[in-house]
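Reply to dn_fold:

You asked what the input looked like. This is it:
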Amino acid sequence: MKKIVFAIIAASLFAVVIAAAGCSKSTDYLNYVSQMRSACFFGESKSYRVTAYSEKREYPLKADGLVGETGKFVILKITFKDSEKMLLNDVYADFSLEKEYKTSLGYNAETESYVVSVAVENLPENDFTVTVTADGNSENVPLTTFKNDAVSPEKALKSAVTLKREFIDKLEASNADYEIMVRLIVEGEEVFYYVGIVESEYTTALLLDSRGALLAEKKLKNQ
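and this is what came back:
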């Protein structure tokens, strides 16, 4: 009887060792993520249209294959309905996420909007309001999160890793540096995910649908 018990214990210990060895080789790809955009918020007032993105990312954000120190950020994009008032000197935004935040925004000619990235302690989990002040005019803009049945950013990441398993395995086998960027994209009523596997010089860019299926793929040279 004792021999049987010892045999079972020995077999169990061996199984634990094998399992531990297997786990040590598995990769947690979240450790390679330098940007994960998880929510989009939209709203407008009499004078402004506001978009907000909620994301965890490195700062500054660099496409260099390396994951820097990461934090939580809310990205604001403000557009004036009256295009003649777009080029003002001072545009400010105030909002509250358990803590009060006030920031100035800079004009982005490419998107024709005012943009800023704000480091926050807590990412927004529900709708919130942004107060926009420009040229002496202040307006409250309620922001509503876009609700959809899309897979989570983590599942989109998992889908991308599965799709590019052979490519990623080659990167790891050669000890090449790489980072992964995951962005939720909302266009009208449609939802997509951009997943970029970023090396030092090139990015393999994937466009996924809301369920994580591949729509398009392209290799791009990093800017």
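The two ends are 69 Å apart (CA to CA).
Hope that clears it up.
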